[in-house]
Design goal:
Blueprint lengths: L7 H44 L7 H38 L8 H4 L6 H30 L4 H23 L10
Helix pairs in contact: 1-2, 1-4, 2-4, 2-5, 4-5
Length: about 180
């Protein structure tokens, strides 16, 4: 809620603060999804081993897909907030304050020469965690479990969904390098 008589600058700064709060929250949630995935992997592997039922590993791709998609959506929103601040909010605030640059960190941190390498490595971690684990579970199922037609169809559908998730993660990885001028 805003107070009557707030200036445009105050409103834009308030918007910035709200966006940064949302971004912080999404980053924490997104990063915790990696831990949730590791816990899911351990739980499914232990359950399958204790029950002696290799078909239980088919739960792992489903868990990785749900957690991976949620991770991807939150990661994209974190990036979208940064992009909005850099491309829309910052320039609007700058124009109201005499044209000076504002929120410089939103652009400066993207100019690091190692950014592209870090983004590639993060993509490898993300795809390995969510897609590699799911694919490994499917291969284990195909190699160890007695193949049942219904479960084989489920596994093929899961593989297709995992491939879509990997493609989307690659598409949204933002591997560009932005040099500072």
């Amino acid at each position: 809620m805003t107070e009557p008589g707030m200036s445009v600058e105050q409103l834009l700064i308030l918007e910035y603060q709200q966006l940064k709060d949302e971004q912080r929250s999404r980053i924490g949630f997104r990063d915790n999804l990696l831990y949730a995935t590791l816990a899911s992997i351990a739980t499914v592997v232990i359950a399958a081993a204790q029950a002696g039922r290799a078909a239980l590993v088919l739960m792992l791709p489903a868990a990785c897909l749900v957690l991976g998609w949620t991770y991807l959506v939150n990661d994209e929103k974190v990036s979208a907030i940064g992009r909005y601040v850099r491309e829309e909010l910052g320039p609007r605030l700058g124009s109201t304050t005499g044209g000076g640059e504002v929120f410089g960190w939103e652009s400066v941190h993207r100019g690091d020469r190692q950014r592209r390498t870090r983004k590639i490595l993060q993509l490898v971690v993300d795809v390995s965690t969510f897609c590699g684990t799911a694919t490994t579970a499917l291969v284990v199922y195909w190699c160890i479990a007695p193949l049942q037609p219904a479960l084989l169809i489920v596994s093929i559908v899961e593989l297709a969904a995992v491939m879509v998730l990997g493609w989307q993660m690659t598409l949204y990885a933002d591997l560009s390098y932005t040099a500072l001028t």
